[in-house]
Amino acid sequence: MRQPLVAGNWKMHGSRAENANLVTALLDLLPAGKHAEILVCPPFPYLLETGRQLKDSGVQLGAQSVCAEAQGAFTGEVSAAMLKDVGCRYVLVGHSERRQLYGESDALVARKFVAAQSQGLVPVLCVGETLDEREGNQTLQVVSRQLEAVLSVSGVRSLARAVIAYEPVWAIGTGRTASGEQAQEVHAMIRARVAALDATIGGSVRILYGGSVKASNAQELFAMPDIDGGLVGGASLKADEFARICAGAG
Ligand code: 13P
Question: Which residue ranges form the domains of the chain, and what is each CATH number?
Answer without folding.
Answer: 5-248 (3.20.20.70)
